[in-house]
Protein backbone atom coordinates (compact mmCIF):
# COMPACT_ATOMS: atom_id res chain seq x y z
CA UNK A 1 0.00 0.00 0.00
CA UNK A 2 1.30 3.47 -0.83
CA UNK A 3 2.06 5.45 2.29
CA UNK A 4 0.43 8.54 0.80
CA UNK A 5 -2.87 6.68 0.58
CA UNK A 6 -2.70 5.56 4.21
CA UNK A 7 -1.97 9.05 5.49
CA UNK A 8 -4.68 10.62 3.34
CA UNK A 9 -7.19 8.22 4.86
CA UNK A 10 -5.99 9.00 8.39
CA UNK A 11 -6.14 12.71 7.65
CA UNK A 12 -3.73 13.98 10.33
CA UNK A 13 -1.65 17.16 10.15
CA UNK A 14 0.89 16.25 12.84
CA UNK A 15 3.31 13.32 13.09
CA UNK A 16 5.87 12.45 15.71
CA UNK A 17 7.89 9.30 16.16
CA UNK A 18 11.11 7.34 16.44
CA UNK A 19 12.30 5.95 13.08
CA UNK A 20 12.00 2.28 12.19
CA UNK A 21 13.36 0.36 9.20
CA UNK A 22 10.01 -1.40 8.85
CA UNK A 23 8.44 2.05 8.43
CA UNK A 24 11.11 3.39 6.08
CA UNK A 25 8.51 4.36 3.49
CA UNK A 26 6.62 6.40 6.08
CA UNK A 27 9.78 7.99 7.46
CA UNK A 28 11.04 8.94 4.01
CA UNK A 29 7.63 10.36 3.05
CA UNK A 30 7.54 12.55 6.16
CA UNK A 31 11.06 13.87 5.52
CA UNK A 32 10.27 14.39 1.84
CA UNK A 33 7.03 16.21 2.63
CA UNK A 34 7.70 18.07 5.90
CA UNK A 35 11.39 17.68 6.68
CA UNK A 36 11.66 18.43 10.38
CA UNK A 37 9.18 21.32 10.46
CA UNK A 38 8.08 21.00 14.11
CA UNK A 39 4.55 22.19 13.41
CA UNK A 40 3.98 19.04 11.35
CA UNK A 41 6.74 16.51 12.11
CA UNK A 42 8.99 15.90 15.13
CA UNK A 43 11.52 13.07 15.43
CA UNK A 44 11.48 12.60 19.18
CA UNK A 45 13.98 11.19 21.67
CA UNK A 46 11.88 8.16 22.59
CA UNK A 47 8.40 6.79 22.05
CA UNK A 48 7.02 8.01 25.37
CA UNK A 49 8.26 11.46 24.41
CA UNK A 50 6.33 11.12 21.13
CA UNK A 51 3.14 10.18 22.93
CA UNK A 52 3.35 13.22 25.20
CA UNK A 53 4.06 15.50 22.21
CA UNK A 54 0.97 14.07 20.53
CA UNK A 55 -1.09 14.79 23.63
CA UNK A 56 0.09 18.40 23.70
CA UNK A 57 -0.78 18.80 20.04
CA UNK A 58 -4.30 17.52 20.68
CA UNK A 59 -4.77 19.79 23.71
CA UNK A 60 -3.82 22.83 21.61
CA UNK A 61 -5.75 21.97 18.45
CA UNK A 62 -8.41 19.37 19.21
CA UNK A 63 -7.08 17.42 16.22
CA UNK A 64 -5.86 13.82 15.95
CA UNK A 65 -2.06 13.25 16.02
CA UNK A 66 -0.11 10.31 14.62
CA UNK A 67 2.70 8.59 16.52
CA UNK A 68 4.99 6.19 14.61
CA UNK A 69 7.34 3.68 16.18
CA UNK A 70 8.96 0.27 15.94
CA UNK A 71 7.16 -2.31 18.08
CA UNK A 72 10.19 -2.37 20.37
CA UNK A 73 9.04 1.08 21.49
CA UNK A 74 5.70 -0.15 22.78
CA UNK A 75 7.23 -0.48 26.23
CA UNK A 76 8.05 3.24 26.22
CA UNK A 77 4.46 4.25 25.40
CA UNK A 78 2.72 2.12 28.04
CA UNK A 79 2.87 4.71 30.81
CA UNK A 80 1.65 7.74 28.84
CA UNK A 81 -0.96 5.64 27.02
CA UNK A 82 -2.33 4.22 30.27
CA UNK A 83 -2.10 7.30 32.48
CA UNK A 84 -2.48 10.15 29.96
CA UNK A 85 -4.23 9.14 26.75
CA UNK A 86 -6.64 6.53 28.08
CA UNK A 87 -10.33 7.42 27.91
CA UNK A 88 -10.64 6.80 31.67
CA UNK A 89 -8.11 9.58 32.25
CA UNK A 90 -7.87 12.46 29.71
CA UNK A 91 -9.36 10.68 26.68
CA UNK A 92 -6.77 11.95 24.19
CA UNK A 93 -7.25 10.18 20.83
CA UNK A 94 -4.11 9.18 18.95
CA UNK A 95 -3.35 7.07 15.88
CA UNK A 96 -0.29 4.83 16.28
CA UNK A 97 1.59 3.38 13.30
CA UNK A 98 3.73 0.47 14.50
CA UNK A 99 6.41 -1.39 12.55
CA UNK A 100 6.09 -5.12 13.28
CA UNK A 101 9.60 -6.52 13.73
CA UNK A 102 9.83 -10.16 14.81
CA UNK A 103 6.43 -11.12 13.47
CA UNK A 104 5.83 -14.81 14.29
CA UNK A 105 6.83 -16.98 11.34
CA UNK A 106 9.04 -14.29 9.80
CA UNK A 107 12.82 -14.56 10.35
CA UNK A 108 14.28 -11.67 12.30
CA UNK A 109 17.05 -10.81 14.75
CA UNK A 110 16.93 -12.28 18.28
CA UNK A 111 16.07 -9.00 20.00
CA UNK A 112 12.83 -8.83 18.00
CA UNK A 113 11.53 -12.36 18.57
CA UNK A 114 9.64 -11.97 21.85
CA UNK A 115 8.67 -8.38 21.11
CA UNK A 116 7.14 -9.58 17.85
CA UNK A 117 5.16 -12.27 19.64
CA UNK A 118 3.54 -9.81 22.05
CA UNK A 119 3.09 -6.81 19.72
CA UNK A 120 -0.64 -7.20 19.17
CA UNK A 121 -1.32 -8.35 22.72
CA UNK A 122 0.36 -5.27 24.20
CA UNK A 123 -1.85 -3.04 22.06
CA UNK A 124 -4.90 -5.01 23.17
CA UNK A 125 -3.85 -4.71 26.81
CA UNK A 126 -3.55 -0.93 26.35
CA UNK A 127 -7.09 -0.89 24.90
CA UNK A 128 -5.79 0.16 21.48
CA UNK A 129 -7.66 -1.38 18.54
CA UNK A 130 -5.20 -2.65 15.91
CA UNK A 131 -5.38 -3.40 12.19
CA UNK A 132 -2.51 -5.14 10.39
CA UNK A 133 -1.32 -3.74 7.05
CA UNK A 134 0.32 -6.20 4.65
CA UNK A 135 1.66 -5.90 1.10
CA UNK A 136 -1.75 -6.84 -0.29
CA UNK A 137 -3.85 -4.55 1.94
CA UNK A 138 -6.07 -2.30 -0.17
CA UNK A 139 -7.11 1.31 0.26
CA UNK A 140 -10.72 0.12 0.42
CA UNK A 141 -9.92 -2.08 3.43
CA UNK A 142 -8.13 0.73 5.26
CA UNK A 143 -10.94 3.17 4.45
CA UNK A 144 -13.43 0.78 6.03
CA UNK A 145 -11.24 0.42 9.11
CA UNK A 146 -10.87 4.19 9.41
CA UNK A 147 -14.64 4.56 9.49
CA UNK A 148 -14.67 2.30 12.56
CA UNK A 149 -11.66 4.05 14.03
CA UNK A 150 -13.27 7.48 13.76
CA UNK A 151 -15.99 6.33 16.13
CA UNK A 152 -13.37 5.13 18.62
CA UNK A 153 -11.30 8.30 18.26
CA UNK A 154 -14.40 10.42 18.90
CA UNK A 155 -14.76 8.55 22.20
CA UNK A 156 -11.23 9.53 23.23
CA UNK A 157 -9.73 6.13 22.45
CA UNK A 158 -6.51 5.44 20.56
CA UNK A 159 -6.09 3.12 17.57
CA UNK A 160 -3.21 1.53 15.70
CA UNK A 161 -2.06 0.31 12.31
CA UNK A 162 0.55 -2.44 12.62
CA UNK A 163 2.73 -2.63 9.50
CA UNK A 164 4.24 -5.88 8.28
CA UNK A 165 7.47 -5.92 6.30
CA UNK A 166 6.85 -4.31 2.91
CA UNK A 167 3.37 -3.21 3.94
CA UNK A 168 3.99 0.42 2.93
CA UNK A 169 5.74 1.88 -0.10
CA UNK A 170 7.06 5.30 -1.16
CA UNK A 171 8.77 5.85 -4.49
CA UNK A 172 10.51 9.22 -4.17
CA UNK A 173 14.27 9.05 -3.41
CA UNK A 174 15.42 10.41 -0.04
CA UNK A 175 19.09 10.49 1.00
CA UNK A 176 20.70 11.31 4.33
CA UNK A 177 24.24 12.65 4.77
CA UNK A 178 26.40 15.01 6.80
CA UNK A 179 29.77 16.67 6.34
CA UNK A 180 31.70 14.67 8.93
CA UNK A 181 34.76 12.77 7.76
CA UNK A 182 35.43 9.82 10.08
CA UNK A 183 33.71 6.49 9.52
CA UNK A 184 32.21 4.74 12.54
CA UNK A 185 33.96 1.45 11.83
CA UNK A 186 37.34 3.17 11.81
CA UNK A 187 36.47 5.01 15.02
CA UNK A 188 35.74 1.68 16.70
CA UNK A 189 39.00 0.27 15.31
CA UNK A 190 40.87 3.08 17.10
CA UNK A 191 38.93 2.40 20.31
CA UNK A 192 39.96 -1.27 20.19
CA UNK A 193 43.61 -0.38 19.78
CA UNK A 194 43.47 1.55 23.07
CA UNK A 195 40.98 -0.48 25.11
CA UNK A 196 42.98 -3.66 24.38
CA UNK A 197 41.92 -6.34 26.88
CA UNK A 198 39.32 -4.26 28.73
CA UNK A 199 35.56 -4.95 28.55
CA UNK A 200 33.36 -3.08 26.08
CA UNK A 201 29.58 -2.71 26.11
CA UNK A 202 28.26 -1.46 22.78
CA UNK A 203 24.95 0.02 21.73
CA UNK A 204 22.16 -1.18 19.47
CA UNK A 205 22.58 -1.31 15.71
CA UNK A 206 25.53 -1.02 13.38
CA UNK A 207 28.04 -0.11 16.08
CA UNK A 208 27.73 -3.56 17.64
CA UNK A 209 27.79 -5.21 14.21
CA UNK A 210 31.00 -3.36 13.31
CA UNK A 211 32.57 -4.19 16.66
CA UNK A 212 31.83 -7.87 16.07
CA UNK A 213 33.37 -7.82 12.59
CA UNK A 214 36.43 -5.90 13.74
CA UNK A 215 37.13 -8.60 16.32
CA UNK A 216 36.88 -11.14 13.50
CA UNK A 217 39.30 -9.15 11.34
CA UNK A 218 41.75 -8.89 14.23
CA UNK A 219 41.59 -12.63 14.88
CA UNK A 220 40.19 -12.03 18.38
CA UNK A 221 37.36 -13.76 20.16
CA UNK A 222 34.28 -11.87 21.34
CA UNK A 223 34.39 -12.49 25.05
CA UNK A 224 35.45 -8.91 25.88
CA UNK A 225 32.30 -7.47 24.31
CA UNK A 226 28.67 -7.30 25.38
CA UNK A 227 26.66 -6.42 22.28
CA UNK A 228 23.43 -4.65 23.28
CA UNK A 229 21.54 -5.76 20.17
CA UNK A 230 18.21 -4.51 21.55
CA UNK A 231 17.16 -2.24 24.43
CA UNK A 232 18.09 0.98 22.65
CA UNK A 233 19.37 3.74 24.92
CA UNK A 234 20.36 1.48 27.80
CA UNK A 235 23.96 0.45 27.02
CA UNK A 236 25.41 3.20 29.23
CA UNK A 237 23.26 2.07 32.17
CA UNK A 238 24.28 -1.56 31.61
CA UNK A 239 27.90 -0.41 31.65
CA UNK A 240 27.35 1.59 34.82
CA UNK A 241 25.70 -1.35 36.56
CA UNK A 242 28.69 -3.56 35.79
CA UNK A 243 31.36 -0.94 36.48
CA UNK A 244 30.05 -0.14 39.95
CA UNK A 245 30.26 -3.80 40.94
CA UNK A 246 33.75 -4.31 39.53
CA UNK A 247 35.76 -1.17 40.40
CA UNK A 248 39.04 -2.97 39.64
CA UNK A 249 38.13 -3.21 35.91
CA UNK A 250 37.83 -0.32 33.47
CA UNK A 251 34.67 -0.46 31.33
CA UNK A 252 34.19 1.14 27.91
CA UNK A 253 30.76 2.03 26.58
CA UNK A 254 30.40 2.60 22.83
CA UNK A 255 27.18 4.56 22.45
CA UNK A 256 25.29 6.25 19.62
CA UNK A 257 23.73 9.69 19.51
CA UNK A 258 20.18 8.43 19.03
CA UNK A 259 20.63 5.96 21.87
CA UNK A 260 22.16 8.59 24.18
CA UNK A 261 19.23 10.91 23.50
CA UNK A 262 16.62 8.21 24.05
CA UNK A 263 17.41 7.91 27.76
CA UNK A 264 19.63 10.90 28.45
CA UNK A 265 18.80 10.78 32.15
CA UNK A 266 21.30 7.93 32.35
CA UNK A 267 24.10 10.49 31.97
CA UNK A 268 22.93 12.28 35.12
CA UNK A 269 22.98 9.02 37.05
CA UNK A 270 26.47 8.20 35.75
CA UNK A 271 27.66 11.62 36.87
CA UNK A 272 26.04 11.34 40.29
CA UNK A 273 27.45 7.86 41.04
CA UNK A 274 30.97 8.84 39.90
CA UNK A 275 32.33 5.48 38.61
CA UNK A 276 36.08 5.96 38.33
CA UNK A 277 36.36 3.06 35.87
CA UNK A 278 33.85 4.26 33.24
CA UNK A 279 34.64 5.62 29.75
CA UNK A 280 31.56 6.69 27.79
CA UNK A 281 32.06 7.25 24.06
CA UNK A 282 29.19 8.66 21.99
CA UNK A 283 29.68 8.28 18.25
CA UNK A 284 27.55 11.10 16.87
CA UNK A 285 26.46 11.16 13.23
CA UNK A 286 23.26 13.07 14.00
CA UNK A 287 21.19 10.25 12.56
CA UNK A 288 19.16 7.14 13.28
CA UNK A 289 21.36 5.41 10.74
CA UNK A 290 20.63 1.77 11.55
CA UNK A 291 16.94 2.26 10.72
CA UNK A 292 17.37 4.46 7.65
CA UNK A 293 19.24 7.67 8.45
CA UNK A 294 16.58 10.10 9.67
CA UNK A 295 18.10 12.94 11.73
CA UNK A 296 18.38 13.12 15.50
CA UNK A 297 18.55 16.25 17.64
CA UNK A 298 22.13 15.39 18.60
CA UNK A 299 23.64 17.35 15.72
CA UNK A 300 22.10 20.53 17.19
CA UNK A 301 23.09 20.20 20.85
CA UNK A 302 26.32 20.20 22.87
CA UNK A 303 26.66 16.73 24.36
CA UNK A 304 29.99 17.62 25.96
CA UNK A 305 28.44 20.48 27.90
CA UNK A 306 25.68 18.15 29.03
CA UNK A 307 28.27 15.61 30.20
CA UNK A 308 30.15 18.29 32.14
CA UNK A 309 26.94 19.47 33.77
CA UNK A 310 26.11 15.87 34.72
CA UNK A 311 29.43 15.51 36.54
CA UNK A 312 31.74 13.55 34.20
CA UNK A 313 35.35 14.22 35.29
CA UNK A 314 36.97 14.37 31.88
CA UNK A 315 35.12 15.46 28.74
CA UNK A 316 36.38 15.77 25.17
CA UNK A 317 35.25 16.15 21.57
CA UNK A 318 36.98 14.67 18.50
CA UNK A 319 36.49 15.45 14.83
CA UNK A 320 39.61 13.70 13.52
CA UNK A 321 41.64 10.63 14.40
CA UNK A 322 44.54 12.51 15.99
CA UNK A 323 42.18 14.16 18.47
CA UNK A 324 40.36 10.88 19.03
CA UNK A 325 43.57 8.97 19.81
CA UNK A 326 44.71 11.66 22.24
CA UNK A 327 41.35 11.58 24.06
CA UNK A 328 41.26 7.77 24.20
CA UNK A 329 44.75 7.50 25.70
CA UNK A 330 44.02 10.31 28.14
CA UNK A 331 40.76 8.73 29.28
CA UNK A 332 42.51 5.41 29.87
CA UNK A 333 44.84 7.10 32.33
CA UNK A 334 42.25 9.37 33.94
CA UNK A 335 39.86 8.95 36.85
CA UNK A 336 36.36 8.56 35.47
CA UNK A 337 33.70 8.94 34.58
CA UNK A 338 35.08 10.12 31.22
CA UNK A 339 33.05 11.25 28.22
CA UNK A 340 34.18 11.43 24.59
CA UNK A 341 31.97 12.66 21.75
CA UNK A 342 33.17 11.66 18.28
CA UNK A 343 31.52 13.14 15.21
CA UNK A 344 31.26 10.75 12.28
CA UNK A 345 29.83 10.39 8.82
CA UNK A 346 26.60 8.61 7.97
CA UNK A 347 27.18 5.30 6.24
CA UNK A 348 28.50 1.78 6.63
CA UNK A 349 29.90 -0.97 4.42
CA UNK A 350 27.27 -2.55 2.22
CA UNK A 351 28.59 -5.99 3.12
CA UNK A 352 28.43 -5.38 6.89
CA UNK A 353 27.32 -8.59 8.52
CA UNK A 354 25.62 -9.45 11.79
CA UNK A 355 26.94 -11.26 14.85
CA UNK A 356 27.18 -15.00 14.26
CA UNK A 357 26.99 -15.94 17.93
CA UNK A 358 23.72 -15.99 19.84
CA UNK A 359 22.76 -13.31 22.33
CA UNK A 360 22.84 -15.92 25.10
CA UNK A 361 26.36 -17.05 24.19
CA UNK A 362 27.45 -13.41 24.03
CA UNK A 363 26.24 -12.95 27.62
CA UNK A 364 27.83 -16.15 28.92
CA UNK A 365 31.19 -15.43 27.27
CA UNK A 366 31.23 -11.87 28.58
CA UNK A 367 30.41 -12.95 32.12
CA UNK A 368 33.18 -15.55 32.07
CA UNK A 369 35.62 -12.90 30.85
CA UNK A 370 34.66 -10.53 33.66
CA UNK A 371 35.32 -13.24 36.25
CA UNK A 372 38.77 -14.13 34.93
Q: Averaged pLDDT, please?
A: 96
Return residue spans where pLDDT drops below 50 for at least 5 consecutive residues. Answer: none
Work out the helicity level. Answer: 40-55%
Number of helices: 14
**How large, in whole angstroms, is the Cα Rg?**
21 Å
The main sheet orders its strands as 2-1-3-4-6-5
Give the CA-based shape. Answer: elongated
Main sheet overview? 6 strands, parallel
Order of H and E elements: HEHEHEHEHEHEHEHEHEHHEEEHEHEH
Task: Provide the structure class.
Answer: alpha/beta
Distance between the termini: 54 Å
What's the number of extended β-strand segments? 14
Strand content: 15-25%
Give a description of the structure.
- The protein is an alpha/beta fold.
- The protein has helices at 3-10, 24-34, 47-61, 74-85, 110-125, 139-154, 184-195, 206-217, 235-245, 257-262, 265-273, 303-310, 321-333, 359-371; strands at residues 15-17, 41-43, 66-70, 95-99, 129-133, 159-163, 200-202, 225-227, 251-256, 278-284, 287-288, 294-295, 314-318, 338-343.
- Helix 3 (47-61) runs parallel beside helix 4 (74-85), helix 7 runs parallel beside helix 13 (321-333) and helix 9 runs parallel beside helix 11.
- The longest helix has 16 residues, at 110-125.
- The protein is elongated.
- 47% of the residues are buried.
